[in-house]
Design goal:
The complex is a heterodimer of chains A (191) and B (322). Chain A is 47% helix and 21% strand. Chain A is built from six helices and ten strands, in the order E-E-E-H-E-E-E-H-H-E-E-E-E-H-H-H. Chain A has helices spanning 31-54, 80-83, 86-101, 135-152, 156-170, 174-186; strands at 2-6, 10-15, 18-23, 62-66, 69-73, 78-79, 104-105, 114-117, 120-123, 130-131. In chain A, strands 1-2-3-5-4 form a five-stranded antiparallel β-sheet, covered by helices on one side. In chain A, strand 1 and strand 2 (10-15) form a beta hairpin. In chain A, helix 4 runs antiparallel to helix 5 and helix 4 packs across helix 6 (174-186). By secondary structure, chain B is an alpha/beta fold. Chain B folds into two domains: 4-109 and 279-316, Nucleotidyltransferase, domain 5; 120-274, Nucleotidyltransferase, domain 5, CATH 3.30.420.40. Chain B is built from nine helices and twelve strands. Chain B has helices spanning 41-63, 79-96, 105-116, 153-163, 170-178, 199-209, 214-240, 255-268, 284-296, and strands at residues 4-8, 13-19, 24-31, 69-75, 100-104, 123-127, 132-138, 141-147, 191-192, 195-196, 244-248, 271-273. In chain B, the strands form three sheets. Chain B has a five-stranded mixed β-sheet with strand order 3-2-1-4-5, sandwiched between helices. In chain B, strands 8-7-6-11-12 form a five-stranded mixed β-sheet, sandwiched between helices. In chain B, strand 7 (132-138) and strand 8 form a beta hairpin. The longest helix of chain B is centred in the C-terminal third of the chain and has 27 residues, at 214-240. Chain B starts with a strand and ends in a 26-residue tail after the last helix. The chains are: A alpha+beta (191), B alpha/beta (322). At the A-B interface, helix 1 and helix 4 of A face strand 8, strand 9, helix 7 and helix 8 of B.
C-alpha cells in the first residue's frame, strides 16, 4: 500500500488498482464533531458517488465501505488543475451541468477534484455533496469552482466563460444559477 | 525614515497612529461603546466625528513632525463610519500638504502581521465582527480562498450573545461561559468547499438555549464555529502549500480558537503566528503601516479617487509592494 495523497481531511492510499480513502482524526476538534463529520462524510461520499454515476457523471466504482474508510476504483489520470484549458473548462461545465440536472450538488468543486483520463472528466471526492435542487446550493457549487479558477489559474476569465458555455448545454436552469453566483459574490461582508 | 499617519474607523474603534519602517511611534484610540444592543452605524459615526479631532491632535503631538503621508481605511466597513474618517483624512492631508493613501482594511490586518511577527508568506485567517476570510498571496494579489457566505463570526457570536441576554461585545463572555461547560450539543456545521456560513448556527444556538444550559450552548457554539474556520484554513494550507499561518482580527483574541489553530499547525508541520493583542483588533498602526508600504511603492490616492467603499474586497488591490 502506497500513500499517494495526504489532503486536508483524508489520506489516499493506492493498493493495486484500488484507492483506499481514510478520513483522518483531527486533534483540534471535539471527538463528537470529529467522528460525526468523518462518518457522515464517508457515508455521503459513497452514496452520492454511486448516484452521480447513475446520472451519467463519470465517478469511481465503489468496492467497500467501513466507518471512516472507502475502497474504490483508481482513476489513473491527472487533476484538471494541471491540464486545464478553455476546452476542458467547457467540458467541466457540461459535467457540472449533468450533476446539477440530476439534483445533486458536489459541495467541494475544485480543479483538484476533477480528474482527466482518456479524454474524459471524472468527478471525485463527494464528501461534502448533497441532494439539493436549491438555486443557492447550485450557486455556491459554481461559485466555489470559480474561486479556484481565480485563485490558482492566470487566465481565469476565459475559463469561466467556457465553463458557462458547457454548463448551459447540459443544464436548463443554468442562467438562474449563473445569476445567483453573481449575487453570492457581491453578498454578505457588511450587513 | 518615512513617517506615515494612519486613520482607522471602519466600525467601533477609532484610532490614529504614526509609524516608521521600524515601529509604531504614536497611537491614540477612542472606542465607541453602544449604550445597549450592538453597534449602531450612525451612532458609531457620530462618535468618530466627535472624537477624531482630539485623536488626531493627540497623535500628532506625540510623534508628528514631518509626516510624509496620511493613510486611511477606505473600506470595507460601515458606510457612515468610513465617510466620517475619510473626510478627516482628506482634510488632514490637505492641511499638512502631504499625499493621501486609501488602504484596504483587510490587507492592513495581514501586513501588520507580517511586520510584527516572523510570518513572511502566510495563509491568513482573518476573523472579526464583520469579516471572516481565509487569504493568501498569489501572483500580485491577496486572494480570498474562503470566506463567510453570510455574516462574520464575530457578528454571529454577538447576535447569539444578545439573544441570550449577554452584553456587547458577546464574544469574550461566550468564551468565559464555555469554559464551564459539561457537554457538547450538536449544532449545524456548515462548510461548503472553502466557504463557511454562520447565520444558521447562530439561530440554532438560540433555539438550543431553550432546552440546554447556557454554558453548554456557548461551548458548543464555539467548538462548532471554530472547527469550521480551522478546517477551511487547513484546506487553504493544503491547497497552496504555504508553510505559515497568521491569525488576524479581533476574534483572534479567543484562546480556544488559538489553541485549535495551534494544534492543526503542529499536526501539519506549519508555523503559527499571532501578533500581540494591540495589532490584532482594528488599529491605526496597521493602516499607517500598509500606507507606508504603499507610499514607498509609489501609490497615491487623489482626492477625486478617495471615495470610501463599504464592500472593498482585498482581491481588488494590485499588490506592488511585495
Amino acid at each position: 500500500m502506497e500513500i499517494i495523497a495526504s489532503g486536508a481531511e483524508a489520506v489516499i492510499a493506492l493498493e493495486g488498482n484500488t484507492i483506499i480513502k481514510t478520513r483522518v482524526h483531527k486533534r483540534y476538534r471535539l471527538k463528537e464533531i470529529d467522528e460525526m463529520l468523518r462518518r457522515d462524510r464517508t457515508r455521503t461520499d459513497v452514496r452520492l458517488i454511486s448516484e452521480a454515476r447513475r446520472c451519467g457523471v463519470p465517478t469511481p466504482i465503489i468496492r467497500d465501505v467501513t466507518d471512516f474508510e472507502i475502497k474504490m476504483e483508481y482513476i489513473d489520470g491527472v487533476p484538471l488543475k494541471n491540464v486545464i484549458t478553455p476546452a476542458l473548462s467547457e467540458k467541466a461545465g457540461e459535467l457540472v451541468g449533468k450533476l446539477h440536472s440530476c439534483g445533486l450538488v458536489h459541495g467541494d468543486l475544485t480543479t483538484s477534484n476533477i480528474i482527466f483520463r482518456d479524454e474524459k472528466l471524472f468527478l471525485i471526492d463527494f464528501g461534502l455533496a448533497s441532494i439539493d435542487k436549491n438555486l443557492e446550493a447550485r450557486g455556491v457549487d459554481v461559485h466555489v469552482l470559480f474561486q479556484t479558477f481565480e485563485s490558482t489559474h492566470e487566465a481565469h476569465e476565459e475559463l469561466i466563460l467556457f465553463f458557462k458555455k458547457g454548463y448551459r448545454r447540459t443544464f436548463s436552469g443554468a442562467d438562474d444559477v449563473i445569476n445567483r453566483v453573481k449575487e453570492i459574490e457581491s453578498r454578505g461582508r457588511y450587513a | 525614515m518615512t513617517l506615515i499617519l494612519g486613520l482607522e474607523g471602519t466600525a467601533w474603534n477609532l484610532s490614529a497612529a504614526i509609524v516608521d519602517e521600524k515601529d509604531m511611534v504614536a497611537e491614540t484610540t477612542a472606542t465607541y461603546r453602544p449604550a445597549s444592543g450592538g453597534i449602531h452605524p450612525r451612532e458609531a459615526a457620530q462618535h468618530h466625528a466627535s472624537h477624531i479631532g482630539d485623536v488626531v491632535r493627540e497623535t500628532l503631538k506625540k510623534g508628528g513632525k514631518n509626516i510624509d503621508a496620511v493613510a486611511f481605511s477606505q473600506g470595507p466597513g460601515l458606510g457612515p463610519c468610513l465617510r466620517t474618517v475619510a473626510t478627516a483624512a482628506r482634510a488632514l492631508a490637505l492641511s499638512l500638504d502631504v499625499p493621501l493613501i486609501g488602504v484596504n482594511h483587510c490587507i492592513a490586518h495581514i501586513e501588520v502581521g507580517r511586520w510584527k511577527t516572523p510570518a513572511r508568506d502566510p495563509v491568513t485567517l482573518y476573523v472579526s465582527g464583520a469579516n471572516s476570510q481565509v487569504l493568501a498571496y498569489r501572483a500580485g494579489y491577496y486572494r480570498v480562498f474562503g470566506e463567510t457566505l453570510d455574516i462574520g463570526i464575530g457578528n454571529a457570536l454577538d447576535k447569539f450573545a444578545r439573544s441570550v441576554g449577554l452584553p456587547h461585545p458577546g464574544g469574550p463572555r461566550v468564551e468565559e461561559l464555555a469554559k464551564q461547560a459539561s457537554r457538547y450539543i450538536p449544532l449545524p456545521y456548515t462548510v461548503k468547499g472553502m466557504d463557511f456560513s454562520f447565520s444558521g448556527l447562530s439561530t440554532a444556538a438560540q433555539e438550543a438555549r431553550k432546552k440546554h444550559a447556557l454554558t453548554d450552548v456557548c461551548h458548543s457554539f464555539q467548538e462548532t464555529a471554530f472547527a469550521m474556520l480551522v478546517e477551511v484554513t487547513e484546506r487553504a494550507v493544503a491547497h497552496t502549500g504555504k508553510k505559515e499561518i497568521l491569525l488576524a482580527g479581533g476574534v483572534g483574541a479567543n484562546m480556544r480558537l488559538r489553541e485549535m489553530l495551534g494544534l492543526m499547525c503542529e499536526d501539519r508541520g506549519v508555523e503559527f503566528y499571532v501578533p500581540e493583542k494591540r495589532f490584532m483588533g482594528d488599529n491605526g498602526a496597521m493602516i499607517a503601516y500598509l500606507g507606508l508600504l504603499m507610499f514607498k511603492a509609489g501609490y497615491r490616492t487623489e482626492i477625486t479617487d478617495s471615495r470610501v467603499n463599504p464592500d472593498f474586497r482585498p482581491d481588488e488591490v494590485v499588490v506592488k509592494w511585495r
